[in-house]
Amino acid sequence: MINQTYDLPIGYHTFHPNQVYNFQFNRWHSLGFARYMDMKQAGKRIKKFTDWKTVLLDLAKEAEQDQRMKNACIYYRGAEFYINKDDPDKLRCYTTFINMFYTLFKHDCLKRLKIPYQQSYLPGFILATENQEKKGTIVIHGGFDSFIEEFYFMMKILSDQGYDIVAFEGPGQGGARRIYDLGWDEQWEKPTKAVLDHLKLEDVAIYGISMGGHLCLRAAAFEKRISQVISSGGAVDYWKIPGFFSRNILKLFLHLPDFTNNQLKKKMKKDAHHRWFAENSMYITKINDPLQASMKMLDMNIRNLQPQHITQDILFLSSAQDHFIPKKMHKINMNALPNARSVQGILYTTKTQAQNHCQIGNIPVVCNDVVRWLDNKRLSNNMNLNNKNKDRPLK
Question: 163-181 pLDDT, tens per residue?
Answer without folding.
Answer: 999 999 999 999 999 999 9
